[in-house]
Amino acid sequence: MLKWIRNYYVDETIKDPGRTRARIIVGKYVPGIYVVTLSDNPGNILEILSTAVLTQRGARAICPPIVGIAKGKDGAVQMVQDIIEQVYRETGNLKIREYLENR
Fold first, then answer.
1. 14 partner at 20 to 30 Å CA-CA among 36, 56, 69, 70?
2. Is the whole model's pTM more than 0.85, yes or no?
3. Number of domains in the chain
4. Can you tell me the distance from the alpha carbon of 46 to that of 100, in angstroms, rounded to the nearest whole number?
5. Sign of torsion, CA 32 87 39 3?
6. Is 63 helix (H, G, I), strand (E, B) or coil?
7. Average pLDDT over the chain, rounded to an integer
């Protein structure tokens, strides 16, 4: 089962975010949509995954918490950049995991 953080980020170019999230939850491939997740790898902070990866039951079972959905890989990269800038601007540090979990 996929885990989502409360108040996850949504790219404003996604027309129907509720429907998009519902399709991701049930394991449907949503063309052109990427999810931004917290990373399980201690060397990384955030990861970008295509929804194609989440159609696999095994990948969905081990997927870290989702912090955002974006249209296109460029949109996902921009979302990661915006998240990092927001965390630094509001807290003065880069404790992104703590910020997102307590947001």
1. 56
2. yes
3. 1
4. 11
5. negative
6. coil
7. 95
